[in-house]
Amino acid sequence: MSFVGNAWNALGDVGLWAYEEMSIYRRRRGARTAPGDDGDAAARLRAADYRTVERVSGISVAEFGERYLMRSEPVIVADGMRDWQARQIWSFDYFRREFGDMTVRLQDAGFKPRDSVELGAYLRRIASLPPVELGQIGADLDYLRYTYDSFFKHLLFTWGFGHRVKTRSFSFLAFQRLREHWRRPYFLPAGGYRIPWVQLGELHPNERMCQDWGLYFSAPGACTRLHVDGMRSNAVLCQVAGTKAGWIFSASLEDAARRVAEGRGSVGTGVVRPDGEADRIWRFDLAPGEIMLIPKGLAHEVHTLSPSISLTYNFVTNPESRDYFRFKTERGAGWIADAPIAAAPAFADRCRGEPVRGPADKELRLA
Which of 32, 199, 235, 338 has the smallest C-beta neighbourhood within 10 Å, fewest atoms? Predict the structure, then answer.
């Protein structure tokens, strides 16, 4: 892209960041209550339409946008990595060889920083663990998400100057070294993004770091608790190795799902349910080579079933931006529940059929 295009997109990123800070995160609006939203939260979940995330292949950009992105409908693209070298190259052994001597900071189930460990030893340990079933939550290991060493360096990566940055951050180094191994999924549009700001040229997420880009390494039994992503933008979860499973909740169930996860009572002063929007819960199972869309603003909980390597980043396109800003202004920033919804008996009765197996005397943490 030309210097003018890069400069314009960089200015757009700064303007969008300023807008987010001034008009959304600092806005304090009381939640509104819709008629009929005063019932029991568990009853809402029990009565919801329970379905499996649809799985497709060979889908066009136009069809993906019309059927899923614009309708906030989750979907799994089974051949989403059909042109990625990462499928053949990335493994626990590969990352131990390339980055094993680095020191990294782990995170717990609530994204809070935990212990610093040597990456090679950590990867060797989690790769040796046996698979688990959905609902088995371990408490022995935290997990590795992405890490930054400064906001300024993050901006340089966002603006496409990441190859010039000197860093010892694992995520930044991985972004620099691995960019030939992956690319924008074939079913996503080339340009016209509001987040990150790409109004001129095409978006190459392997060259320009998108919002919340990162590699995840997690062991069987890991659980990212029920949450909504911080900026409420769309996420693509790209499963390179291992398997994950979990649930996604419609926007109408956001408050009810959080209350059930945290053991609180009725919905009470919940958020508005848009007219005509059905209560839905999607169950998903994600296999290697597949990419899942988690639509903007939807609460979700993700469990690791076998030693896993995945990549993720977030985005918002121009056509959905008006609805995105309206929705985020009403709902506020993202959140994460104090407990996993898989451990809530009311949810297990509806969607699992058996109690969660986990340590009784320890905090349920990502393993």
Answer: 32
